Amino acid sequence: MAFIASNFAPIMFIGLICFLILGFPVAFSLGAAGLAFGALGVYLDIFPTAILSVLPLRLIGIMANETLLAVPFFTLMGLILERSGMAEDLLDSVGQVFGPMRGGLALAVVLVGAMLAATTGVVAASVISMGLISMPIMLRYGYSRSLASGVIAASGTLAQIIPPSLVLIVLADQMGKSVGDMYKGAFIPGFTMMGLYILWVVGLAIFKPKTVPALPPEARTFVEPSGSHGYTSLTVLFVFCLAVGVLLAHEMTAIHSWWQGEVVEFVPTDEKIVVAMCGGSFVGWLIAVINRVTRMGLLSKLAERVTFVLIPPLLLIFLVLGTIFLGVATPTEGGAMGAMGALIMATMRGRLSWKLLRQALDTTTKLASFVMFILVGATIFSMVFQAADGPVWVEHLLAKLPGGQLGFLIFVNIMVFFLAFFLDFFELSFIVVPVLAPIADKMGIDLIWFGVLLAVNMQTSFLHPPFGFALFYLRSVAPEKPYVDTHTGKTMEPVTTMQIYKGAIPFLLLQLSMVALMIAFPALVTGGLDKPVQVDMNAVQQQMLQDLNETERSSDFNSLPGLFEQAAPAPGGNAGSSAAPGDAGGLPGATQDGAFGPVGGEPEDPMKAIQESLGK
């Protein structure tokens, strides 16, 4: 028993692993391990019985956590959009735009995957939708089966990192950080990841063109009476909207200054991107509406189709992310507006029905319950683990790693990468992050950057052969047997599981490359965050001196020494402040005995003492 008591924390961690290996669900494994070791700890007198009485308060705290309401809101939004046919329309329209170039269909899948990620935030919905819609088309026109599988699975995982990602909500909650800041930090890395995917497809189009053939002319459905495909009109509209967006981004500080009535010198990059993108999109939508109403013939069929299909999701992105980045709404409120916006979009498209709504609500309830059960189990486990000084054990374990911060980051990312073979991102967020976050904070690592880094790493859990969830989702919709293509009448070969695994590996390496890029260039995350407020200490000093001079003239100044004596901490302490002993609460020039001199002693010239202290 003495051995168990002295090694309680590591034995508890090993016990959790044993529960998981036995095949019990993660939520129940966490709860069972926590309760079992909690009872054992009380029996061994490692911690008092009162520790278990805290559990109901912890559970009530979970249910009262408004931040977690964003999870069902964003899930409902994504499911309604996915089931109302938005993914199908996007893939069809974007595929027509990029289809004539080599690798165009793969590029369309990546771009649509990013857009679905920014509107749905649900990996399963994105992978299944694109697998059902784009996989048969890519196979029909001669795409490599492994590439088609890999690009669909990898593009679906963009929902893991591009806001409004569900994992970012959970990570922010577990780290005690703002969800809005987590979204801002993940904005640039998410779209950088999309850029890496595009570079890979472009590289294949250059060096292995047979694996990514272009769409044949007969497959292009939007043709003008003149025989053209309408690319000139689409290009002009795109350039005009881009110019409007760039102008908005350039003048963002002036717009903010006018709106707030005071000079604004800095606007975050992510805010500029969202507002500029949506401003340009709104102008394009307005032109398309005017063209359709007046029948002026300004736009081609392709340009009009792309505009009306792309603009509603982009405006929904602004409704959700724009309001969060601008500080108008909290992530929970943004999620609620997004869900309502999805309902409105589905209604306007004539695709909202009671059946669709019931299915979406049913799936949302299941996912939200799944998250809450894991969180309850993780709370029970972490409460007992902390009572047994488990974080101290982990901290001592990791503190011995060579390399300081870099060694810690390399070890943590390797550990998370291998744990992702067996655990999904929810489980990793609730089990691993609460243990690692305090240690990272003590080592001076920015927790927003650390959270986004872990989110990118946990993204690999969807592409790990053979356990990647995105691979399972794609396997469920990819053809397993030979089938007859409905358009060509040809018999098509199936997609094997090994082809799916082979296609996922290059994109898995790209995700790990993104982890390395973020460690090498932290500004990819921190550059998108609000800059800290700079305080002019000289101006503060002058204002304080002015106020003190006015106080001296208007009242009896003899009462001030007694006031300072009351504010000074007792000898040997710091009154609960963060200042070191001897700093007297951090007041400049103060001593441990009194405000500006020994307790009970009155300074000869209080005003002079204050001026000298401020001058220091």
UniProtKB/TrEMBL annotation:
One of its GO terms (cellular component) is plasma membrane. It comes from the Bacteria. Part of the tripartite ATP-independent periplasmic (TRAP) transport system. Keywords: Cell inner membrane, Cell membrane, Membrane, Transmembrane, Transmembrane helix, Transport. This is TRAP transporter large permease subunit. The keyword rRNA-binding does not apply. Residues 567-582 have a biased composition (Low complexity). One of its GO terms (molecular function) is transmembrane transporter activity. The chain crosses the membrane at residues 7-28, 34-55, 67-85, 105-135, 147-171, 186-207, 228-249, 273-294, 306-329, 335-354, 366-388, 408-436, 448-474, 504-525. Residues 550-616 are annotated as: Disordered.
